[in-house]
Amino acid sequence: MIPVTPTIALDEADIEEQFIRASGPGGQNVNKVETSVQLRFNTQGLSGLDEGVRHRLTALAGRRLNRDGVIVITADRFRTRERNRADALERLVDLIRQASVRPKTRRKTRPSKSARTKRTDSKTQRGQLKRTRGSYSSDD
Q1: How far apart are CA 1 and CA 135, in angstroms?
Q2: Domain hosting residue 47, numbered range
Q3: Into how many domains does the chain fold?
Q4: 111 by DSSP, 3-state: which?
């Protein structure tokens, strides 16, 4: 079990890893060794997540989520397989951690009476300033 939060833990059986060849510079090492990791995590199959966390997770995943409800994370930042594997797993855990935080509910508020009067006073003061800028006529 991989701990994410005190209430959420991931089972390693729910995570599928596939090693692929990385792109970019690296010479013969890139052409021979499969160091890039493609991590797949099915959000529908996990029973430890409640519906709110699952909904926020699908929203946060964005284009990493495919039609089947599987999050695909590709890690090819490092040259070794182990570091890429740890990086992909850490990114998944961080994504689930972000989804587990419940957003604050917004409460409707109204401006106080003093704030409203301050605002109208500043508007009238600004209007007076603009009125004094009018065209200048001289009697020469």
Answers
A1: 78
A2: 2-100
A3: 1
A4: coil
Asked if residue 107 is part of any domain, the answer here is no
Interhelix angle 81-100/51-61, nearest 10 degrees = 130
Between the CA atoms of 47, 48, 51 and 52, what dihedral angle is there, to the nearest 10 degrees? -160
Count CA within 13 A, CB hemisphere, residue 108.
0
Task: Take residue 39 and report the two structure tokens written for it.
Answer: 């991590």
Per-residue pLDDT of the chain (140 residues; tens, 9 = 90+): 666 666 666 766 677 777 777 666 666 666 666 777 788 877 776 666 777 777 787 788 778 777 877 888 888 777 777 888 888 888 888 888 888 888 889 899 999 999 999 999 999 999 999 888 877 666 65
Residues, the chain: 140
Q: How far apart are CA 81 and CA 34, in angstroms?
A: 8
- Asked if 84 contacts 36 with a C-beta cutoff of 8 angstroms, the reply is yes
